[in-house]
Automatic annotation (TrEMBL):
<dbReference type="InterPro" id="IPR000868">
    <property type="entry name" value="Isochorismatase-like_dom"/>
</dbReference>
<keyword id="KW-0378">Hydrolase</keyword>
<feature type="domain" description="Isochorismatase-like">
    <location>
        <begin position="30"/>
        <end position="207"/>
    </location>
</feature>
<dbReference type="Pfam" id="PF00857">
    <property type="entry name" value="Isochorismatase"/>
</dbReference>
<dbReference type="InterPro" id="IPR036380">
    <property type="entry name" value="Isochorismatase-like_sf"/>
</dbReference>
<protein>
    <submittedName>
        <fullName>Isochorismatase family protein</fullName>
    </submittedName>
</protein>
<dbReference type="GO" id="GO:0016787">
    <property type="term" value="F:hydrolase activity"/>
</dbReference>
<dbReference type="InterPro" id="IPR050272">
    <property type="entry name" value="Isochorismatase-like_hydrls"/>
</dbReference>
Length: 235
């Protein structure tokens, strides 16, 4: 029997503490794609890694969401020139490699391999790790009537974990498809997923996430549109 990431004793301790219960899955999910911008998905950038497989898995999930019109919200970290070159953002003093994430640069562009629909999908621009911190994401999710958040993106140990924590603290049950999140190194990613599964959300397979998203019923047509269709009205 496998002892898991940290061994049998750790698993026993967490079970005794009452961690790891399954989250409630609602019927109105949204997908939040955290920072799958070129500065994170391409290893030519200081802040990036080759996340080709993560992009492919996330693409599959997004495509499963389209028939049911499940909202897809993308996020991107982007700094002004003054922020990127100055000392106003404390995080950039700790992580200077992210100073390349300047507004308008290719580094902050959503990975072009993702099926983003400009003008349809929402884009949240942020300055910190969590997609909720200093943004209107919680209000957007509430306005869209969403009751569950499926979190994808990068990095697992950084912005993904921070977003998951703030999502559940904002009242949203969270699912994290393991194949849809990526990091620069395996160890920090595994630790973050262990922590998420124990305390904040369910870490699930891609097939499970696709099945869940695919089970969401397509929205009904507006009543006026249905009446018009039945009468054979035209414009």
């Amino acid at each position: 029997m496998s002892g898991g990431l940290y061994g049998v004793a750790t698993n026993r301790t967490y079970r005794r503490a009452g961690f790891g219960a399954a989250v409630r899955r609602g019927s109105r999910p949204a997908i939040v794609v955290v920072d799958l911008t070129r500065g994170f998905t391409e290893d030519s950038y200081p802040s990036g890694a080759d996340l080709t497989e993560v992009v492919a898995a996330t693409t599959r999930l997004i495509e499963a969401a389209r028939p049911a019109e499940v909202p897809v919200i993308f996020t991107a970290i982007a700094y002004t020139e003054a922020e990127a070159s100055g000392d106003a953002v404390a995080w950039l003093r700790k992580a200077p490699g992210m100073r390349a994430l300047v507004e308008g640069s290719e580094a902050v562009a959503v990975d072009p391999r993702l099926p983003m629909r400009p003008g349809h999908d929402h884009l949240v621009v942020k300055k910190g790790a969590s997609a909720f911190f200093g943004t209107g994401l919680a209000a957007t999710l509430t306005g869209l009537g969403r009751d569950t958040v499926v979190v994808c993106g990068a990095t697992t140990s950084g912005c993904v974990r921070a977003t998951v924590v703030d999502a559940v603290q904002s009242g949203f049950p969270v699912l994290v498809p393991r194949a849809c999140v990526g990091d620069r190194a395996e160890g920090p990613a595994d630790a973050a997923l262990f922590d998420i599964q124990a305390k904040y959300g369910d870490v699930v397979t891609l097939d499970d996430a696709v099945g869940y998203i695919g089970s969401v019923p397509a929205p009904a047509a507006p009543r006026a549109a249905r009446r018009s269709h039945r009468r054979g009205d035209s414009t």
